[in-house]
Amino acid sequence: MRLEGSCHCGTVKFSLDSAHPYPYQRCYCSICRKTQGGGGYAINLGGDASSLQVNGGEAISIYHAVMREEGNSQVSNAERHFCSKCGSALWLFDPQWPELVHPFASAIDTALPKVPESTHLMLDSKASWVQPQLGGNDKQFAHYPDESLAQWHERLGVER
User: Fold this and answer.
1) Which of 5, 20, 24, 29 could disulfide-link 107, Cβ–Cβ 3.0 to 4.6 Å?
2) pLDDT tens for residues 46-58?
3) What are the CA-CA distances from residue 19 to residues 58, 72, 112, 151, 160 (Å)?
4) Total-model pTM
């Protein structure tokens, strides 16, 4: 599926191909929640990095989160791309998986398919005010699930 996305002010527009366009995975970690998730979580999609096309790239800034665990701090290799004019979160790229890019569902303008179930992950990190809206078939994880984006799409037969 071809996804088209943009920032709020319209300075940055992008497109990419996605074999995994269902916005099912809600991440409650502090990084996603604070950099992108106004509802207390963020939804990342999966896309083909080689297909990413960007207009307005001069307005993109990159944030590398600081990982803080038990008194140890380390800068993440993951690049969180955002518009430097309006602050819209656009996508995440991690050089550990150079073939992938993860656009934030909130930046996508293309109509996305509805999900048959959601996966709520990093629930141990959720903000105290967040009450996850759980559907009957939704899965919940304190940390990361073993199931990948591709495996979720395959299991449910929703490959695009």
Assistant:
1) 5
2) 999 999 999 999 9
3) 28, 36, 12, 11, 5
4) 0.89
